[in-house]
Amino acid sequence: MNWKQLLSAKRWGYEYREVSDHLDARSEFQRDYDRLIFSSPFRRLQNKTQVFPLPGAVFVHNRLTHSLEVASVGRSLGRLFYNLMKKENPDIDEDCPFLQEVGNIISSACLSHDLGNPAFGHSGEAAISSYFTEGEGRKYQEQVTSKQWADLTNFEGNANALRILTHPFNGKDEKGYALTYSTLASIVKYPCAAIDGHIKGNHHRKKYGFFQCESEAFERIAHELGLQRDPTNPNGYLRHPLVYLVEAADDICYNIIDLEDAHHLKILSYQQVEELLLPLCGGEDLRARLDSLQDTGSRVELLRAKAINTLIHGCADVFARHQDQFLSGTFQSALMDALDAPIVEQMKKISAISVAQIYNAPTVVQIEIAGYKVMNALLEEFVPAYLKTNKTVFDNKLVAMMPAQFHTHQQDTYSKIRAVLDFVSGMTDVYAVELYRKIKGISIPSLD
């Protein structure tokens, strides 16, 4: 793979349009960022759980604020990488003019990396999958192909993000959000189909990156950008190198920011947070500055900023130094796992504390359980109603609740199920709970 082909301003749905070279306020990749910022799927992230329940008396991160922060970190990673490459080769802009846009490409991909996540995060993904593996959805297995069944039984938010950005939803622009090919490729962490994914020890196939209905779309993207076939899977591809930086930005943010939220919610003490973050602050003596701040929240903010700065510089340096491996697809770990040993060990400590005390905190577990039940119950209502040939009056009323954009003209079972999943997975936490309560008769809509 080579940067000149990997960085393309060709736009989805406008493949034959020449890229404008006249002076403009924005580059093609900045346009990607702006299109995402103003999009409905992005706005809905404000009511999707990141870790802690929303809303609360104390503000914590939701999917939207998380995505904005990841985009900020991603932009810095891209700029640092470009600066390092420019230092090594002052004439690099002549060889690869779009390399200076790497920060914008990564920040756009970071904005969209969680667009496909359903309500209640991983609990929502699990609920959708279990409906087909353990629930009423098992009866549809004989009506779909084995590849389609693998999609349904392993719902993946990453693959759903690519669908949201490229699928011609009913009544919407058939070109989707018309993002550049490079931005689209940079969000696909695991460039293979569901049936080829979930391979332990293979970083490209840890999960999967596109549904069967988007397989041809990804083939087009891969061919245009010159992505290499995965030698262990001829039906899949090696990652676009920028995926590693998008992944690193996400890893940096959720590992560090979750500690800050846990402190705000009094799950972790200030002393615990300091012990976890101070070793990541680049050897700078912060003792005097920390002691001068009376507010512990301000101390945590300082530690958070310094720790993120250390991780950004470390990841950008690894990415620049190992260019050959990233371009050949032979780098087989996350960037965060390739940092200096003391940092990796400290991140393992943070991960262990997060699992034990944050992700298993009572409020977190309660929302996961509730979300699982809500999502599963919605599928039990909407999937059968939408698939029935002879619908009851009640079935028709349920189907009428699905917005027109989610309906499909396709008559096969897989396409119909996918239409319902588009509807349910796009819901915010608040809307999912509200709809669940109404259709179950727990609450009655006001007639006022």
UniProtKB/TrEMBL annotation:
- Pfam families from the xrefs? HD_assoc (PF13286)
Q: Which UniProt keywords apply?
A: Hydrolase
What SMART domains does the annotation carry? HDc
Residue span, HD/PDEase domain: 59-264
Q: Which domain of life is it from?
A: Bacteria
Q: Does the keyword Hydrolase apply?
A: yes
What InterPro entries would the database entry show? dGTP_triP_hydro_central_sf, dGTP_triphosphohydrolase_C, dGTPase, dGTPase-like, HD/PDEase_dom, PHydrolase_assoc_dom
Mind telling me what this protein is named?
Answer: Deoxyguanosinetriphosphate triphosphohydrolase
Q: What organism is the protein native to?
A: Sphingobacterium suaedae
